[in-house]
Amino acid sequence: MTDRAFAVVRAGALTTVQDLGRTGYAHLGVPRSGALDPGAVRLLNRLVGNVGGSEGAAVLETTVDGCALRPRCAVTVAVGGAPCPVRVDGRPAAWGTAVRVPAGSLLEIGAAVRGLRSYVAFGGGVAVEPVLGSRSTDLLSGLGPAPLAEDAVLPLGADTAVRTPVDAPPWPGPPEELVLRVRLGPRDDWFTADALRTFATRAYRVSSASNRIGLRLEGPALDRARPGELASEGMVLGAVQVPPDGRPVVFLADHPTTGGYPVVAVVREADLGAVAQAVPGTPVRFVPVR
Amino acid sequence: MSLRTLRVGDRALLVELAGGAETEAFHAELLRRRAAGVLPAVREIVPAARTVLLDGVADPARLAAELDGWEVGALPARVGEAVEVPVRYDGPDLAEVAALWGMSVEEAVRLHTETEFRVAFCGFAPGFGYLTGLGERYGVPRRATPRTAVPAGSVALAGPYTGVYPRSSPGGWQLIGTTDAVLWDTGREPAALLTPGTRVRFTVAGAKGGRR
Question: Which of A206, A222, A273, B137 falls between 20 and 30 A from B212, CA-CA?
């Protein structure tokens, strides 16, 4: 019987298991979690044949420097997200398409050439035990599997795929500039008219303190129109929260479910995938839309 | 009941209410309507101190218009058993809390065990409930310097709330005791012992009459 699993040879800076997230438990304080670029997850799963309800199968999300794995069984993989070199037993293999990896060979996902996070999908998906309906690693609350560590062995699901040709749309590439469409509110009335003008017109930069919880920004501070504290309230993905230092933080997948700082605006979900690949220093502009 | 709905992005609404009691009543009404199948699909219903967030809504404008016409009464009658949480009242901040309340430690413990609490909302960490019942009169400030590690099971106070730390974490609440109750277990349904709307009583662990 084939051992459907892979061993971790090199874990990389931060490699986690991610699917489309752990929804439905925010009222218990459980973050949504899930891949920062869900579009990449769906595409890569289609490429390896995880279709018909399996497009949210669990994948690996790397950070900056990739990882290396040794599958114990022959497996079809696809690497996408941030472009990076892919090697099988030292030989170059294709990025952005399905690749057959023989049992026992070394699969190397190199450092991102552009962008930050590469994704690795497997035929059958990563089959760690789900927690509250998801296999995602939640770095805020510690739910789900631990980040990859050297010598760890992770199970793979049964590969029942009937592979059909998939047209992979060209990857747009990491953004030179992040243009984030936002809807103002719910707490835009906590900020001065000047602050709202600043928010909508000035350029920010991605801070190196950004992570899966939030995109932290450097740039002009947003002044409040009123003193006092906001009572904690529910937070959504893409919320632009403004802590007392006035620098906006965009909430990403592992964001807390409630927060006490006012949310000036919310980023459109469709624009958040690009955030996954924004390296520190990337210029950011917020564009309010109705 | 007066409520204000605020748009939150393209798929969510934040419903703002006059106070904590109104928020708990509105949340209970949402759950009642969802159970009865008369609420449009909502992915997450997240109550908080004075708001309820409705996330993953197909048509937020339409739902907002519908909410405006709702009649929400007082909290529904208390049904079912309260969850009982046995506590060893041995927290390092208990004496300070009693002093803030202007009473002895024994009186503070009696006040805490004779109060019926209700989980208003969860947040901070999975399974961490904000329990109301003491009222603003017995509100206490957070500690000036948060502790870097509060042990799991710590029963703690901040503002008008009582909470129990589901696992060890940094924290600035005033620690009044410890419980062995399992606050969070992902193998259980629901995973949280203290879910929003649950009634809760704290008892003195091991004491005669502690089990009611």
Answer: B137
